[in-house]
Design brief:
Layout: H1 16-39, H2 45-49, H3 57-60, E1 76-78, H4 83-87, E2 91-96, H5 102-110, E3 117-118, E4 121-131, H6 138-152, E5 155-161, H7 167-181, E6 187-191, E7 195-197, H8 199-207, E8 215-216, E9 219-220, E10 248-249, E11 253-257, H9 260-268, H10 277-288, E12 301-302, E13 319-321, H11 327-340
Parallel strand pairs: 2-4, 2-6, 4-5, 12-13
Antiparallel strand pairs: 1-5, 3-4, 6-11, 7-13, 8-11, 9-10
The protein binds 2-acetamido-2-deoxy-beta-D-glucopyranose (2 copies).
């Protein structure tokens, strides 16, 4: 488990903010239970009886959030069909993001997304999106995305509904896109939008990395499967019966050689999809018998920002999860200041 886990052995993805979230839910649930037992309020029956240790698959269909429609034929409605082939980048950064979050996209375009030639290697980025839910100004967002795509040529939008529980679909269509569009690219990275990325350190690491069957990032081993229905990462026994997950690389930022996407897609035909995307990639890797690799230095992929980031912090890491993408603007300045000061 990573160092920042609040609930040791409990919180499988262990992003700091997610653990906080779990804490809030935990406290709220506690309050609710006290409240409902005082008032003799009964819980909806199906919530409690739906799985109760059953291994009957049909039962799990009541757990919508655990159902992932993949494999399935999805289509890109905003695409860059030729760009990757033409540019032949060494490294492609794939950034899953919600359709409405233009602000975060623009901040990335102004910071690490604008580093397109690093250590003499071509680097490019694409944002990966699903569809906006109807209503909520969806039409306006679609229109804006079309304009953004025409201006920046970095939008890939597929026709599944964009939601937290569909992140596995997002990751899989990302693999589909990479395997069919980037024939001469060496590596790709899946990276969240609310992160700091040191592209130079990343390229530098990759120049010395294995070229085939390679995946690295913050590796988690022996994470417990959460059976508590109130957990953000609840997993029914019927969907995944083992008590621990296979080794996987935390989803906030993982890097892989470009021979892997096609193999992972082949594995996905045989491995039942789960909604926790990084765990699912780990399950496919185990099916393939390909181990995930620890980074050359344990501190390169960080799930939280330390309090003290002086002392050449930003020039020594590859990834750090931030509180939000706005924070990236300040962090980017600090990074440049550290570069200039000779870090
Ligand atoms: C699962 O449950 C359904 C409904 O209770 C039942 O019809 C079906 O036979 C069960 N399947 C298995 C494999 O137990
Ligand atoms: C995931 O996407 C599919 C396809 O668009 C959709 O039918 C489903 O409702 C979505 N699931 C969630 C939890 O958003």
């Amino acid at each position: 488990m990573p160092e920042n886990s609040i609930f040791k052995g409990n919180c499988n993805s262990c992003k700091f903010r997610s653990c906080l979230w779990s804490l809030v839910v935990f406290l709220m649930t506690g309050t609710l239970i006290i409240y409902s037992s005082t008032l003799q309020v009964s819980w909806p029956i199906n919530l409690w009886t739906a799985t109760s240790g059953s291994s009957n698959n049909s039962v799990t269909t009541s757990f919508d959030r655990c159902t992932v429609t993949y494999p399935h034929k999805y289509h890109f409605i905003l695409d860059e069909p030729n760009r990757c082939h033409q540019e032949s980048p060494f490294l492609v950064l794939m950034i899953p993001i919600e359709p409405y979050n233009r602000e975060a996209r623009d901040i990335i375009r102004k910071t690490w997304g604008k580093e397109t030639k690093v250590l003499d290697k071509v680097v490019s980025h694409y944002f990966v999106l699903g569809l906006t839910k109807q209503g909520n100004g969806a039409e306006h967002i679609e229109e804006q995305l079309l304009g953004e795509s025409q201006t920046h040529h970095d939008i890939l939008q597929s026709d599944f509904l964009d939601s937290y529980n569909n992140l596995t679909i997002k990751t899989m269509v990302m693999f589909e896109w990479l395997s069919s569009h980037c024939p001469s690219t060496s590596y790709a990275m899946k990276i969240d939008s609310d992160t700091f990325l040191n592209v130079r350190n990343l390229v530098s690491m990759l120049l010395k990395a294995p070229q085939h069957l390679y995946m690295t990032g913050n590796v988690i081993r022996g994470a417990s499967v959460l059976r508590d229905r109130n957990s953000k990462w609840f997993m029914p026994v019927s969907v995944f019966p083992e008590s621990t997950y296979p080794p996987y690389v935390i989803g906030l930022g993982y890097v892989f050689s470009l021979d892997l996407p096609r193999k992972i897609l082949e594995a996905s035909v045989h491995v039942r999809a789960v909604y926790i995307e990084d765990v699912y990639v780990g399950m496919c890797m185990r099916y393939l018998g390909i181990p995930v690799t620890d980074p050359p230095n344990g501190d390169l992929f960080r799930s939280w920002k330390p309090l003290y980031t002086g002392n050449c912090y930003w020039t020594s890491v590859i990834v750090t999860l931030l509180q939000n993408s706005k924070q990236l603007l300040d962090v980017w300045e600090s990074y440049h200041a550290q570069v200039q000061s000779g870090c």
